[in-house]
Amino acid sequence: MILPKLEYKKAGNIAEAIAFYGSYNGQALYLAGGTDLIPLVKLRLSTPKALIDLKGIEELKAVSRQSGWLGIGANVTLFELKNNNTVREYFPALSKSLDATSCETLQMRGTIGGNVLQDTRCLLYNKSPEWRTARGFCYKMGGEACNAVPNAKACFSNYCSDNALSLIALSASVKLAGPQGERKMKLEKIFSGDGRKPFTLMPGEILKEILIPMKRSKGAYEKLRVRDSIDYPLLGVAVSVKGGTGRVCVGGIGAMPLAYTLKKIDNSTFKDITEKVYSNARPVSNATLPPDYRKKMVGVLVQRAIKKVLKEGK
Amino acid sequence: MKTMKVTFRVNDEKVILKVRPCETLLETLRERLDLTGVKEACGMGACGACTVVVNGVPLRSCLVLTPEVDGASITTVEGLRKDGKLHPLQEAFMEKGAVQCGFCTSGMIMTAKALLDRDKRPTKKRIIKTLSSNICRCTGYKKIVEAVEEAGKKRV
């Protein structure tokens, strides 16, 4: 499929990238690996005037141990991160979600920043322009209806990053840089909950770094998909436990991942959390598996992930 | 739309081109350089038929803008033959009958080549995991995996 006309700029540092963004009056997009972005542009779901390549920015490529944190540059590829010894040793939930992301070739190109900031998906949205025109535009395309749920007042597109779930379970934070300066926030705070515009990032902001508290943890990631080799998650569950507490994060259903805290590590807490996660999950008919099956699998995957975490190290 | 000057190496030959910024590497390789061993199937990065090796890393050329590979070194399936002799992978694919319709073959070979370059003797499990990046709709994966195993043995 042919790309629309656009310009290409390669930024050498963050300030230059932000300046490029300004020179296009905000009608540009940042490009990292492009594995999510280029298909969106090809399908005309995104229509930037220019792509600003961030791959030349050295400071976004490093994984560094800082006091109390592991700092992961946004442009570190998924494959590189998966093979990082610190990640393997300290953050098994992340290591497993990285391994479950797409396939190896795409892991070598795709970046952790791009994976976290990928757009939400819907079976009735990620389609050709002809298909969408024939069907009628939905909320996410700028229309006035949802094509998946009749009479719905909101967009139900699904957020499909595997690694954001494990990062949230690991209590990660993010550093952002934009025209208004830098800021740091908890990863779960970057989600708006609105499928039409899933992130709270300001125009022109760049995800610089992801910070994970440097504490050894036990963890698991469970993913529901049709083809084991490549698919986006139809449901993802990350569990991470350190000390006597833990976190569970569920995604792939709805526009933002939902996080839960495990205050204790015992069977009654697990039972409560499983019930809570199950009742909060509201899948609709916009993925390749039916919603009632996905809902049932929420409970199954949470249980499975917790069992794996408890078995670890025994 | 302004064109951009791009310089890179393809199969050990230097190439200098003026390209439109929206041109994908797949289009450049097939349409300007006649390297039609690179195949377009899905065009969305899902199938792996357009895989080429860029600086030692297998890449889906349909997802890469040509200006992104400025300065890079690219190998396509046409560049595997050296001094009239086929690459062990190509030999093994023929020997084992790992080709059915052949459309996925060049992508499979390039993904396997990048694997063998970084892991000389990969296990069967490793091969299956890596080749799951590529889709064969004739579903003849068994022979393909055998061929890569065979090529790994030959190179040791």
Structure description:
The complex is a heterodimer of chains A (314) and B (156). Chain A has eleven helices and twelve strands. Chain A is an alpha+beta fold and 314 residues long. Chain A folds into two domains: 1-56, Uridine Diphospho-n-acetylenolpyruvylglucosamine Reductase, domain 2, CATH 3.30.43; 61-117 and 157-311, Uridine Diphospho-n-acetylenolpyruvylglucosamine Reductase, domain 3 (2-Layer Sandwich). In chain A, the strands form three sheets. A five-stranded antiparallel β-sheet of chain A has the order 4-5-8-6-7, with no helix packed on it. Chain A has a four-stranded antiparallel β-sheet with strand order 9-10-11-12. A three-stranded parallel β-sheet of chain A has the order 1-3-2, covered by helices on one side. In chain A, a hairpin with a 2-residue loop joins strand 4 (63-66) and strand 5 (69-73). In chain A, helix 5 (92-100) runs antiparallel to helix 9 (163-169) and helix 10 packs antiparallel against helix 11 (291-311). Chain A is globular. The termini of chain A are far apart. By secondary structure, chain B is α+β, with helices and mostly antiparallel strands. Chain B folds into two domains: 4-79, Beta-grasp domain (Ubiquitin-like (UB roll)); 88-155, [2Fe-2S]-binding domain (DNA polymerase, domain 1), CATH 1.10.150.120. In chain B, 35% of the residues lie in helices and 16% in strands. Chain B has five helices and five strands, in the order ββαβββαααα. Chain B has helices spanning 25-32, 88-96, 105-118, 124-131, 141-155, and strands at residues 4-10, 13-19, 51-54, 57-60, 73-75. The model of chain B has no long low-confidence stretch (mean pLDDT 95). The chains are: A alpha+beta (314), B alpha+beta (156). Chain A binds chain B through residues 1-8, 10, 34-35, 38-39, 42, 51, 53, 55, 103-106, 108-109, 228-230, and chain B through 1-2, 4, 20-24, 27, 43-46, 48, 51, 57-60, 62-65, 67-68, 111, 129-130, 132-135.
What is the CATH domain class of the largest domain in chain A?
A: Alpha Beta
Mean pLDDT of chain B: 95
The CATH homologous superfamily of the largest domain in chain B corresponds to: Beta-grasp domain
Q: How can the largest sheet of chain A be summarized?
A: 5 strands, antiparallel
By CATH, the topology of the largest domain in chain A is Uridine Diphospho-n-acetylenolpyruvylglucosamine Reductase, domain 3
Low-confidence stretches of chain B: none
CATH class of the largest domain in chain B reads Alpha Beta
Helices and strands of chain B, in N-to-C order?
Answer: EEHEEEHHHH
Number of strands of chain A: 12
Major protein interface: A-B, 26 and 32 residues
